[in-house]
Amino acid sequence: MSGFASDLTHATYESPDIVALYARPDGLQKPEETLLAQLRPSLGSMDMLDIGVGGGRTTRHFARLAHSYLGVDYSAAMIARCKAEFPAFRFAVADARRLELVADESCDFVLFSYNGIDHLDARGRRTALAEMRRVLRPGGLMVFSSHNANYLPAIVDRFRFRVHASLRETLRSFKWSGVFWAKNGLLQYRMPLAAGRVHDGTHSFRSSALYYVRPDVGVAELHRLGMVDIVCAGNESREFVPGDDPRLAHDPNPWIYYVSRKPERA
Fold first, then answer.
1. What DSSP designation does 62 have?
2. pLDDT band per the 50, 70, 90 thresholds, residue 26
3. Where is the Methyltransferase domain (predicted)?
């Protein structure tokens, strides 16, 4: 993701059909349900920042319980939809890499859900994570989800050309297989991939490539950032496991939730 106002992904998230898609009243994902249950007793005293809020999917569940709530997204159309839908709460247009509107150590809980961070390249990702850490108070909670590089073989298989009984479906397979490999020509030589960007067909290839990372590599990224108490869960699991669990390196889930804390002051 390059320019704030003109890149392909930004244009996609400003389009009415995508705004309507993300404004649907979908429920929480399974790891989010676990997180909400764990935080419910203390959310009333927590100042929450919800990054990449989209159409307000997480707003519906977290905002009314938090002491204060700010939802941000780099799509002005998404934020306009949230303001209309949830007038009681605060929303603002902001880039996750530049959270100037949020003061240092002013949040207890920062959430970046639905793999929003994956629209950034490696450098942008590091910048966004550093910004999330900056705005957290000591002891504050950072939560985000990210696409799992272990799932890439399933993505490749999805776009493999297949002959179907129907000519229409055969031509459809030919079309999307061609688009996939035109955008990912060197992918077969990069696998197994520890971390990197892949065009996985999101929004019918109307978005830029997404960042995929193996879970153990994602955990190491958080350790380098100085985060502690790291736990992870696959998107189909309600159970979090410690970040040093050796099974994480081979977790097959499509994406992973990462939860960590900013250390308390010595």
1. H
2. confident
3. 49-140
What does residue 245 show for φ and ψ, rounded to 5 degrees?
A: -65, 120
Q: What are the structural domains, with CATH classification, of the chain?
A: 8-147+213-261 (3.40.50.150), 151-205 (no CATH)
CA triple 163-165-171, angle to 5 deg: 50
Give the pairing type, strands 228-234 and 255-261.
Answer: antiparallel
Calculate mean pLDDT across residues 157-180: 96
Pairing of strands 107-112, 136-148: parallel
Task: Return phi, psi of residue 47, to 5°.
Answer: -90, 120
**Token digits for 187?**
């992918």
Instruction: Assign 3-class secondary structure to 127-151.
Output: HHHHHHHHHEEEEEEEEEEEEEHHH
Tokens 């939560």 appear where? 143
Q: Which one, of 160, 259, 247, 155, lies nearest residue 210 by Cα?
A: 155
Query: What pTM was estimated for this model as a whole?
Result: 0.94
- Tell me phi and psi for residue 144, to 5 degrees: -155, 165
Q: Is 207 within 8 Å of 9 (Cβ atoms)?
A: yes
Angle made by CA atoms 71, 77, 80, in degrees to the nearest 5: 55
Phi, psi of 222 (to 5 degrees): -70, -35
